[in-house]
Predict the 3D structure of the following.
Amino acid sequence: MLTDPEKRLLSTISGERAFKNVEALVSGERVSGSGEEAEGAEKVKGMLAPYVDICELEGFPVTTYVRGRGSLEVVSPEKRTIPCEVNPVSVSGRVEGYLADVGKGRRKDYQKLPGSGEDMIVLASAEGGLTGIALEAQAKKAQALICHFTPKRDDLISIHGVNTHLPVLSISSRSAAWLRELLGKEDGVRVRLESHIKTSPGTSYNVVGTIRGNQFPDEVIYLTAHHDTWFHGANDNLSSIGCLLEIARLFKEHRPKRTIKFIVFGSEESGIELGRDAIYWDRGSYAYSEAHREALEGRDEGEIALCMINAEILGYTPRTDIEVSPDVIPFVEEIRTAFGGHIAVRELASTWDWTFSDHLCFHTLGVPSMFVKPAEDHASAELPDYLTIYHTHKDDLESVSPVALESNSRLLALLALRLDEASTPPYPLENVVEMVRQSMHILPNKAKVAEKLQKALERCRRASARGEKTRLILRLARILNKNIYAFENYQPVNKLARLLEALSHLDEAISKAEAGDMEGVKQALYKIPGVPFSQAYSRYTVEQLHRLVRESSILSRLSIFELDMSEAVVLASA
């Protein structure tokens, strides 16, 4: 249940006022590192500054991808112009060739194609991840890629970053259906396309506004969103900035006990140099987390990173998903019960899009994190799934609902209020230690690890100084957050669970082989994590994606190939 003070404070939040904030921010496309994005950062700063003690811009270098106009036309056996959009994090090009339908763009989809790849422009459904499909086209020496996204509305054209040295255009599913119908009737279809994209060094900006806590100023709660956009970006993600401004207004009137930092990141949608990192997005949050890394990792004796709450696309529906790191699940479940409404709580590692927003950069440093976004189950006759307009020109002000803004602003505010009011960090120590124990139960030195964790738990209980106790709790949470996650072909996984799964499938394959069941061997091996992906694409594509993962500046923080027990060692020897 909500307390009376909580009800009073939340009642002061206005969806109409949040909507006016969004209305003031909506403009044209604000690409990472562009002048338009810099103007947007200044505007956000001007709107946030009246509510906080200090508001600053923090600049950082990025690669800017300004999309020009693309063109696509069928030149034979008939002439027709196809509406299209240029996908960012790709290259310019002007090519002509025969059109080849490669379905989902997997290796097997190319096997029945006639002709030379050097004269080929491929058409693919990009529902399985665009970069892998583009790399496969590149491996087959295609001249360009034409893609479409399902389940998008069939008349809209959605764009996404690609991260490949190939011209890539998006078309609508309706246009793709027409092209496939033409391919079914004609022996040869030739198309001509142009992709224009301007790439240059740029500077992007994070907007950082701080309200200093009046009792525990060293303990920091982060409330975040991003301000760069594709198209209008009214929901993605200016709507969340509208919510953050409402919450900043609330905390100006209701002074927090802990420090609250409102960070509006630049360059969430793109910003890395082409081909240099598996994660070409989240550059603003990465820049901030690098600049303040000592504090976020608990190595700074000043600031204590209590929790990070990241908001995305909060103006579309009041039905909400909160994806959380495991240490804060009990806390968020209590919020869900108290708040009511349509809220689902999921663990970050169980979701396919764990990496797709700015909480990733904080979580890879071990900071307890929450990701608040539209529910995946909210589609109805009146309100279709947001993915129908995601990254399209229809993500405009008409898609933003004051009702959704008010509900989601109140939810964010309640999360922040209870974090602020908690007498100690809301991570039950026994829960955190038990999670670590469970995650490490297959280690040969599990007894020693358990002993170290128990000693650390006892030290936390004995700690008399508030700051010392808080730091020790967070260091326990950091062991959990830094060790259970890895990266498998863009998908987050529980590392040890996946290892056990792989071993069990290997055991199954051995048993099948001993029984002479070679088809069973094949099926057992195919279940091993990573194998289906490796089977679906060529060796070139798999190697390129693995290279990008290995070289990733963000993912290098995680212990991808081995457990990082540095924190446990520190705890044991302290």
User: Anything to note?
Assistant: The radius of gyration is 25 Å. The chain is about 40% helix and 20% strand.
